Amino acid sequence: MQIPVQVKVYGQTVLSNALIDSGAEGKFIDSKFVAKHRIPIRKLVKPIPVHNVDGTPNQNGTITHYTLRPLLFGNKLTLAFLLVTSLGKEDIILGLPWLKQRNPIINWKEGTISIRRTTTATSLAQRTTKTSKPLKDLIPANYHNFIHLFEKKAAERFPIERPYDHAIDLKPDFIPRDCKLYSMTPQEEVALNEFLTENLRKGYIRPSKSPMASPFFFVDKKDGTLRPCQDYRALNEGTIKNAYPLPLIGDLMDKLRNAKYFTKLDLRSGYNNIRIKDGDQHKAAFKTTRGLFEPTVMFFGLCNSPATFQMFMNDIFR
């Protein structure tokens, strides 16, 4: 089945068709289509070998590049990670991973496809169910003295300065880069305003005049809401990596041996508990339709964030 799709390229719209193929094990875009419309691509860290149905190597060799493209299906905008390869007569192929992720409604009789999205009514019903009881009624009485530890407001305080504030040390040959600006749907503009307003209020971000910037966009979460994302891949390529050791999974599993009772500790907005080192904030600036902003606390996507967070954990539990 083929469906019409609009591909966003540098703010322009390219009309095409996408083949929905449940037998394909990925999401692909044709290399000739990419070249014709000058779609920007990036090199994969590790090439992906291509095989035929019988398991023999495909004559087109390995896939070495990809593109991250906004795709518009009707009025539904999604961001797709597309592998660049030769597709013959097809421009875009959306395989089983896309079908599982979007779980579209297919009308075989009419030859139409609809992208699912959680409705407002469903979201409101879920919220009503979750908040039907006061917090104290859901927690055993002997834990009431600890309720204040789980309040969201208490977690919004700005973190103190520490010796291991997150540093972004750049390689000597690093060249600051600007980035393109992603267009947004009306729903995404609303989500962007909420994100910026909340984080400006908390002091987690601030307006920036940085000479470098990383893209900002949204991806869909399973519950139908939008997750804000910064694409720091270009910045990470030019960042000196922090070799601070992370825990070995095997050692952690060994500590659970013979245990009968398990619990977990989830630190609310964990990364936001760590400042970005003073003077490095502008390096992580991100570009939105409302302007350029830079984080003052650690966000997801920065390559050395896990190492910095592990220093934080080791300091707390030493």
UniProtKB/TrEMBL annotation:
Organism encoding this protein: Phellinidium pouzarii
Q: What is this protein called?
A: Reverse transcriptase domain-containing protein
SUPFAM superfamilies from the xrefs? Acid proteases, DNA/RNA polymerases
Give one Pfam family, short name only.
RVP_2
Tell me which residues make up the Reverse transcriptase domain. Answer: 219-318
